[in-house]
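so i finally got all the pieces together for this one. its two components total, 388 residues if u count the protein bits. some of the lines might not be protein, just check the labels. i wanna see the whole assembly predicted at once instead of chain by chain like last time, that was a mess tbh
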Amino acid sequence: MVRIASWVSLLLVVVACGGTAATTQTDSTLPPVDLDAFVSALAADGRPTVVNLWASWCIPCRSEAPLLREASTRFGDRVRFVGVATEDAPSDSIAFIHEFDLTFENFGDPAGAVKAWASAPGLPVTLFVLPGGEILRRHYGVIDDQTLALGIDDIMNG
Amino acid sequence: MEFTLLAAAATAILFVWIGSKLLSSEITPDHPTDRLIGAALGGVVVGRVTALIEAGVNVLTRPGDVIIIRGGIDTGWAAVAALAIVGWSLRRDLPLALDGLAPMALFGLGGWHAGCLWRGACLGTATDLPWAVTSPGTSVGRHPVELYAAAALLAAGWSISRRPRRPWIPTGTAIAMAGAIRLATQPLRLSIMGGPVGWYLAAVIVGLLVAAVGHRVIRTRPPSPSTMEM
């Protein structure tokens, strides 16, 4: 019995670490992302950029949202922060932004074009982009304080 | 995908298991690995259910969601539950058991820090020292600060396990050393939020108090036969 319980618990752990399901919407109240323009804007911006792909249904996204807000406040204009609401219901995305008081710019991407471009298997995803648009690093899954700080330091000094 | 966190947790458990094999069975409670792994699994279940409740899912009406995961695990409640389970399992002789587990707790903590290798999160502030590790994709050399912490924790655990055991002193020393090592390495870490430095300092103070009280008790009490045997 104990062994069965242990295997069930282990299965629970493994499955808990997996990806999450998505809800697809066809419109958005956030500025809709155009992939070509989005990539061009990253290349044209002279600042290092942190791109975070999130969704309101993604629980790990909720846990990292306060950290991203704090980082965007701390680095101000030195680092550009861009959020992409991915495969999310528009009203839920807006509620998410209000709930976490996200002040950095956000786009709506109901079709998941940026997610596909980033070869992301799930959400959340954080991209560290060098000035000029080259992606230095992709972080899949919830990001912690230290990893975010390291990524930002690298794109600022890379 | 959070498999890197799972790998880090597995590394911590592996280090505890290795520690339990290396240390003499006379200074550890019975079945220490079983107790710790059982507590970890119990913590996972509690953390999973808590995460579901926080996500607005009624686990009584939708029990299948416990397995069909969307919400991850609430690590805070998982840790509380795991500690409670360990405490309950050792309730008959808590001080003795805690003293026996203290070195392995440091091994496990060291393993968790060494798990940075799976997560790509070992690096700290920039340095020109010869052993600096270059951050991937850049030419910036950095302190492998999590490996410093892991090595220090393993050394601390080993040191505590080698000393004669006196009630509460290994437990207090382990708590203090865990806090002190974290404090000592904190300046080498990169951080947005700054880290809970106050909690690390509190751990040092509480650990020293526990050890001091334990030492005081030893000095004021006549030696008991069981103490003499240690």
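DSSP finds nine helices and two strands in chain B.
Chain B has a mean pLDDT of 83.
anyway lmk what u think
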